[in-house]
Records
---
Amino acid sequence: MNLNRRDLLRAAAAAGALGVAWPLSDRLSVAQAQEAAADLGARWDSAPFTLGVASGDPLPDSVVLWTRLAPQPLADTQPLPDTVEVEWLVAANRELTRIVANGRTAAVADVGHSVHVEVGGLEPGRRYYYRFRALGIDSRTGRTRTAPVGPVGRVRFASANCQSFIDGYWAAHHAIAREDLDFVVHLGDYVYEFGQAGGHPLRDHEGPEAFTLTDYRRRHALYKGDPSLRDAHAAHPWFVTWDNHEVVGDYGQATPQRRLGAYQAWYEHMPIRDGHPTAPQVSRRRYWGDLLELTVLDLRQYRSAPNVPGATILGAEQKSWLEQGVRQARDSWHCWVNSIMLGQLRVPGGHRPYPDQWDGFADERKEVLTNVHTAGLEDLVVITGDWHSAFVQDIRPDFDDLTSPVIGTEFLAHSIASSGYGPAANAVLGPVLGLANPHLKYFEGNRYGYDLYDVTPDRWSTHLRVIADRRDPVSPVSTLTTFHVDRGEPGSYEDRATAGSAAQYRRLW
Ligand SMILES: [Fe+2]
């Protein structure tokens, strides 16, 4: 395939042909919508398990298993009774003959016939396989893993973020599905709400923005139509947070009603516990044995307006929970799962142009990071999405004071597919950002992919995995570069073997 999904739509419109249309256009029948989606590479699993299976939030004795029954994924309502019984089983082997847990649950229309099964009584640090059955039909088999306890010599996981369906094929998920991983972390922008594609001339042709629960359900169902995304879910357990586009860009038009619909649709499509469909519990603290503490942050649900007195991105309750965690932390790697840039980002002249990031909450950031330092928390690594570009930067309690200590490293990952700035803009942007931000070590914005973290007791390694071409659903993946952080040594350094690779900025000191 040599055209992007967006290019396919543009070409069809330019030719006056409606054979390729935006599948969520409200002018299409369900059958036409499915056909349009197929033209853009969507292929669902067999009904009723069209959207696949997933597992998530692994604990030492438990994982949550997810599926959603949607025989017609793009329809407004599903041709199903209000309640459908779903059987599930968990086995120790891929052939599903050594069953260790099983049960039944109800898929109900109120939550889009989604199910979230919290399976307990499992062994720590073990691989398991699972499957659902409903209406006489088996789902595909998923694979998952429980968290280990005690001494752990290595953890290997990937992060994904920003997967605009229209912007390209998801070769990055194709690769994630095939990586040897303990788990996957999603950093947000799992779906995009906009009428495709935000302001370009085909907007009218491409269909409407999501506002209602039904709109967001269809959007998630379309995204789950990408076979690589379903493969990545079926291959590994996921931890998830969200950013803005699960609702609307920067929450600009996020009316209370719109939030409720978007939140519920997100809940219905994610393998998460603690089911409050319209107010999901996103933040959580998890452990991978004694090696890694994972702190998942919710930077959307509880925030105030930016740049106002007392502005908070965390909300009071989450902030005290975070600070308590910092004070009581065990000796391990500490990873914050953070949807949007923590580090300061100034432009020439000193302005901070992105108040939607932590920059709009600078007093709170300083307070939280100062507490990290005074509590003596070491080995902090922050992983972040949102920017559609890779950044590596030092974290300091006060970014404007170079005598302020480095207390951690932030890695912003490339996007799965969502467009960043173009190469010409990035060639200018990289050095400009580097000059204005002395804590910035590395910037690369011309590529797409995911970060892979390989962590041992002595060293954290972040591999920037990039695809060759967004126009190819199975584009090969390579490692652009690798950064390391040594245990007990704040700050990162680039692997010598890849230090000469393409980038728009590298700090030379
Ligand atoms: Fe994004």
---
Amino acid sequence: MHVLALVTQKGGSGKSTLSVGLAVAAMQRSERVALIEADAQGTISRWKERREHPYPRVERVVDPAEIEPLIARLRAEGVWLAIIDTAATTNSLAMRVIACADLCLIPARPSPADIEAAIPTLIAIRRLNRRFAFILNQTPTRGGRLSEAATSLSSLGVLALPFVAQRNDHQDALGAGLGVTEFAPVGKASDEIVSLWGWIAAHLAEESDDYGKGALKAAC
Ligand SMILES: Nc1ncnc2c1ncn2[C@@H]1O[C@H](COP(=O)(O)OP(=O)(O)OP(=O)(O)O)[C@@H](O)[C@H]1O
Ligand SMILES: [Mg+2]
């Protein structure tokens, strides 16, 4: 089972929106997916209440000690991918999630202040020796300032592609209890999330190969 964590102490960067969008996109590729909510704010739980489709399953964790047993249980039940949405903080729960993640995804809006605000999270990820990638989210649909933001993020580490533009479909999908690929299957927001899932899936596959070759994997 692969464990993806959406993390950054910067609020409103898109952790929950991308968690949902990616979970549904992966599920539509026939993957067995679970969403784990590690944020008392409850964005994912409320989305699930609005949702008519029973999948993906949603689990909540409150205590850091709950994470590892939950991941073990999901793995035993045959879940292929767990996506963990975290709160905008580097609290002990977020730290435990990072420690358990195969890949940490750090969404950031394309502004210097937002990118800088992710640095404490990046430091924590590096301290725990986890893999990570930034996602540039809520980018303007047109405009030339993006390359500057992308260069800043690339200088801090890996940048997942493509960028995810600011599009109403993401907000409307969340409100409707849907993933954006369900809400507007033929649309640019959906295309971006499908492509982003492809990028992530390829990196998870690489991680599995490394693991198979005996690469050191820190215990979570
Ligand atoms: N690509 C996007 N296009 C349009 N709206 C977006 C996009 N990504 C996120 N949003 C919107 O931005 C707001 C914040 O997103 P979200 O709640 O996912 O952030 P978060 O990082 O989970 O926030 P928090 O730190 O409070 O948990 C929401 O209203 C969401 O719908
Ligand atoms: Mg959130």
